[in-house]
Amino acid sequence: MTDTGYTCSTCGAPRTNHPRRTTTLCQACSRKANGSNPSRIAKSRAIMKAHFADPVFKAQNLAKAHDGLRRMLAANPERLAVLREQARALGLGKVGHAAMPKGSEPRRRAVASRLRNYYQWCPIEYRDDYKRLIYSKGLNAADARAIIERQIQVDMEKFHVTGQLQQSVRAGA
Length: 173
Known about the structure:
Layout: E1 2-7, E2 14-16, H1 27-35, H2 38-53, H3 55-75, H4 77-92, H5 105-118, H6 124-136, H7 141-162, H8 166-170
Antiparallel strand pairs: 1-2
Helix pairs in contact: 6-7
């Protein structure tokens, strides 16, 4: 179906003609243009997030990916050997952890840094409540964050009326 009269306006490669085609680009150049378009990227990201929010869709796709990986490794034992060797090399890279036992100062600093980055959206006074919702109540992070953000908003509204911070009352101060 490739006609010699139709060529890509970017790279000059021959392209197929289709009645619904709206560009003069070949398939590769069209994909490159769409892949670098911020609005297209945002649209695709939103669609994929919506799809993967569905647990059934997510489970089906994970099953397909795992099955494909198993088939690929079964058909290519050399690749499996390479992956095993890479995994061993990664494990050897953890030798430095022996120099930093649990509770050592570098590990404490690393944990503090991770917590600052991970919980930067959450004021310190609410972090225990957030952790309780996640670990004790079993909520997922998004739901727990929404609850904490609502609580912060309610507390700020009460603060404007009473002048007293509610998290300090809850903490027993």
